[in-house]
Amino acid sequence: MNAATDRLETVKADIRDAERDHGRDPGSVTLIAVSKTFEADDIRPVLGAGQRVFGENRVQEAMHKWPGLREEFADIELHLIGPLQSNKAKEAVATFDVVHTVDRPKIAKALKAEMDKQDRHLPCFIQVNTGEEPQKAGIAPRDVDDFVRYCRDEVGLNIVGLMCIPPVEEAPGEHFALLEKIARRNGLAQLSMGMSADYSVAVGFGATHVRVGSAIFGSRDYA
After folding, report:
1. What is the pTM of this model?
2. Adjacent-strand bridge partners of 25
3. Cβ neighbours of 69 (radius 10 Å)
4. Cα separation of 46 and 9, whole Å?
5. Between 2 and 183, whose confidence is greater?
6. Mean per-residue pLDDT for 135-152?
7. Helix (H, G, I), strand (E, B) or coil at 192
8. Are 53 and 32 in contact (CB under 8 A)?
9. HEC-encoded secondary structure of 137-153
10. How far is CA 204 from CA 11, 14, 19, 53, 217, in A?
11. In the predicted model, what is the mean pLDDT of the chain?
């Protein structure tokens, strides 16, 4: 085992402990290993350790890395967890299996058009800006109900859940609780919330997907 696979096992154990401590069913939380900025050689050991669900922020980066890895590991599930521009919808639909960042009507329509063209009807999460931070993408909490109806009924997307990234300077629990409340009233069963610093907390608030990167792969070099 290398450092990344050691850390992977620690994260998985933490998730199992949190599931138990909060009365969750074992295995009810999906770990998304966030591999952004890491190359295929960094990811391969984690794949070798059995991890199959991964998250990437950028369409172009994923297109560069994952085709070759998919040839080696056919059962990979790749999640788009970063912002999407409408001019990348074609590549996103072709590359990813799940989209977490539907955040405006233009993106919803572009994704649906490409899904119809490619006959790949991907499950989607709506990104909610729970802290209403101006620099951050996502639907304001007060607008989520209408946007869910729009995406489902007018556009025809398969909306399976909600996603959020809490403000870094605030306790995440209140944001996780808000996301769970909004999801419940819209009949959405899946919650994509919790990252390296707070994934165990998120499990306690009902997360079904946690997005963990640096706690597995180590510090990132953004140079």
Report:
1. 0.96
2. none
3. 16
4. 10
5. 183
6. 97
7. strand
8. yes
9. CCECHHHHHHHHHHHHH
10. 15, 12, 7, 21, 24
11. 96
